[in-house]
Amino acid sequence: MKTAKIYQYQLPMDSGVILREQRLQQRDGLIIELSDGSRIGKGEIAPLPEFSKETLEQAREDLISLTQLWLSGEEVDLDSHCPSVAFGFSMALLELEGSLPQQGNYQVAPLCSGDPDDLVVKLNEMNGKKIAKIKVGLYEPIRDGMVVNMFLELIPDLSLRLDANRNWTPKKAEQFANYVNPQFRSRIEFLEEPCHTPEESLAFSEATGIAIAWDETVRDDGFEVKIQQGVKAIVIKPTLVGSVAKCIELIESAEQLGMQAVISSSIESSLALTQLARLAEWKTPKSIPGLDTIDLFKLQLDTAWPNCKLPMNLLSELDVVWEN
């Protein structure tokens, strides 16, 4: 017999989390729990403020509608629903079917907060290639260039992933590149979306030799994975992209063209974060995922992230907003 339950959560965040112009003081989301006999599958639906197209209220209505279809036995087209709903529900179905492998890739590219000593500690715990991530584009591009130089000079075997979130004009992107030591540019694994438009980003890469990656562009209407000069990778944030099947299709398209695919977090709770680590191990085993976001929270939810000492919030402590 099929049953379903939807929980709603609010998790307090570290006070320093800023999304574009908004400070994120708490993370709000939904958990879908599907049951079929003795089998259970869970998924998280958490639209990301400033990035998701849908609000939490819209996602909740959409999730209830989709869940009712599933309970009635009707065929469901997941990607006709909100991306966050399609992702969370598809994860719950995978768990219900036993199709999501248990093994996870918990080796993350640590997110730099600006203190090189903290980064060195994290990097010393990494096996193999040392990769870290820095958010750029929030301050003056010259400052960003100086920070990149500092890390690459201090840690000779470090490679960096940078993310500008389309914040720079071509002139500001050029200013950034001019402050990065030319001998360090090859150690920038890629720079995600440096400029306002894909065309400007492609021109930036051609002019500077700095490899770029598509992130927001992956979610643009009509996006297709294709070979473009300077484009080294695509970054896939499933909460913003859609169903697991859609994400796998993007991964396979990238791999066929010799491009890197990186599974990345949209600041989900530890429940979805561990599922993303399992998806990364399953479908992108050669790529370090971008999942270093658990420390942005003050609580974990339902499922523990390895070696995380944050307190745990159980589903039984959450409000049930719908069940059948």
How would you describe this structure in keywords?
four-stranded antiparallel beta sheet, globular, 324 residues
Broad shape: globular
Rg from Cα: 20 Å
**Strand order within the widest beta sheet:** 6-7-8-9-10-11
**Overall pLDDT:** 94
Protein model, in words:
The chain is α/β, with parallel strands linked by helices. Helices cover 33% and strands 22% of the residues. It contains nine helices and 14 strands. The strands form four sheets. It has a six-stranded parallel sheet with strand order 6-7-8-9-10-11. A four-stranded antiparallel sheet has the order 5-4-1-14. Strands 2-3 form a two-stranded antiparallel sheet. Strand 2 and strand 3 form a beta hairpin. Helix 4 packs parallel to helix 5 and helix 5 runs parallel beside helix 6. The chain is globular and about 65 Å long. The termini are close together. The mean pLDDT is 94.
